[in-house]
Amino acid sequence: MDEVRLVKFVRGLTSLEALTSMKKNTADRNGLTEEIDRAFRDREFELFQEKTADRLQRSLDLLTPLELRIIRGLAALWMTHEKRFPPNRSIQALRNRNGDLIRFAEDVVSSGLESSGYRRLSVAGFDDLVFERVVLDNPQVFSMKARDNARRRLKLLEDSSVERSATNNELPLECDTFSTKDLLEAIGFRKPQPTAWYALRDEEIVFLSWVREADFERGTARILADEGDIRPNFYHWRSQIQRIKAGEYRSAYIVFGYKGLDNANVQRSRELRLYTLKEIQQVGVEVFATIAPVEPLGQHGVDHDVASDGKEEGTERGGRFTTAPVRPEQVAFRRALFERFDGRCALTGCAVAELLDAAHLPGRNWALGHNSANDGILLRADLHRALDTGLIRLDARLRLVWVHSSVTDLYERFRQPGDFDA
């Protein structure tokens, strides 16, 4: 189907499910041109407007232009939510006002609450639908108080965004963090589009992921989550995985980062660590891969083969890596502990992901299904070994309360006061 016919077909789709399925199939065939992608987005937004109006029991055809703009703002909030959750609080607030859209917008900008959707709508290109702008663009309808509040709130939000934008254009993004995208660009990798989950360099590809998705101890990582994910980037990355498996890239890497401002992928040092993607396999609805660290020289031109058979692969500098069996429950366990302890060792505060272990607490065993966040603690690797060998002990609150005399010099400074209750 040519581009013109496909765009016309997309505009005729009547459900989000059909639209999602069609977009997935188009992305799988690498057929998402800029025009087609825009058609999917425009039709998706129209369908979200219909869902919003239906939820409010209103007819789009009977709304005034101003009321329609407010409905469009709610639809944009719904559509741009990471998990596609509806704006239930706003919908309930509207119901409490008997569906009065004008009064609702007036009350929103007059409240002391932050406009939580402002940045999301701004990034998605829906700036004109922010309620503060709606109020200011219709001074004849809204009160002076609402206009003054809207002007003040908008200035605060825009000033905040300018500060963030200026910071995003140079390193670091925030205290002790550095933009993964900028660090990749410094070694020649470029994202095909700003929101892409991957970057390209000649015939090489690198995937941007989160630290919590990796199990550095066993050399595995989750590289694709739920098949039900409907975000556009999900399909783009899924198609790239197929290309990697088909051998279309000379080298494939992954880089792990932390979540910074506005979910930006950031590093906690200027040293960027790439990992080679090796054996890729699907486990249920998720996709995992074995990973191997690339020596620093590899970031500047040394090729590393993408392994597909799970055997050892040599590097040009003589290092050898062995793939490990994929253990999804360990990846999930590590991810849960990284979230619980904010990516830091519970005893020392160390935030270097490669030095941290997802440690099971004494008496817990992964083989028995003890793999929840409450079954473990995030520890620096040496402390993990010390815990497993009985050189240190923790209390019920996961505080270090006892240190063996042989390691007093190493760990006594981390011990909390109080008696150890055996």
From TrEMBL:
Pfam families: HNH_2 (PF13391). Residues 302-322 are annotated as: Disordered. Residues 302-319 have a biased composition (Basic and acidic residues). It comes from the Bacteria. InterPro entries: HNH_nuc (IPR003615). Residues 345-392 form the HNH nuclease domain. This is HNH nuclease domain-containing protein. It comes from Paraburkholderia piptadeniae.
